[in-house]
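User: Could you check the structure of this?
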Amino acid sequence: MGLAIRRRLEETGHRVIGVDLPGHGAEVGADLSSGEGRQAAVAAIIAAADGALDGLVCNAGVDIENVELVFGVNFWGVVDLLTGLQPLLARTGTGAAVVNVSNSIHITPNIPLEPVEALTEGNTTLAQSLLQTRPQFAYQVSKFAVARWLRRQAATEMWAGSGITLNGICPGAVMTDLLKKDLKDPRKRDAILGLPRPIGEFATPEAVGDLVEFLLSPRARFVVGQLIMIDGGQEAYFRRDELPLAWRR
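Assistant: Sure, the predicted structure tokens are below.
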């Protein structure tokens, strides 16, 4: 998906500064799993941006049972980069935008909420301890916490008040090389194809790129703090009565 997003942005005239592990060919090489690596990434992006940063796409993610590593990349890799780059985004004036990619959280049942809340509040130690016997939830907790953090921050003076829109997208199964590989494994294929696909097909990386490009553009200026599903109807199928929620004051 990251490559499709990059290509779509370059097609529309944007200069893209990629971030990846050192040695992987990106403009900025950094290890987002550590605080030092994240600080280095922020400094390198600022240097490469030549004083102007119009948008940011947070697409990095790891899905393993190393809770500390997953939280470092998936949660702090977003929060620390956004916080560190906020002044540069704000300098743009009224056109900066941020898109975060939160895969699968919208249709993953029974994500434990206590570690989500702890991580959202920045208490990594507590969040890790709460997953000590459930490390398999590290990925979902990290992505859910980022989405919750984004919702809480989006309409604040620091973000919307500074002209920066924060939004997230929640892709379902996307026809990437990894999915193609999984579909060749009989066990994984049966599980994947067993999920409903109301629209009848998998999303393409290009469709994800189109959505990200829209959210980064002036056309989405008034879309703020939203988590947009791009899953062919899976979330609506499973959770059709959960939205909208009546507002109780």
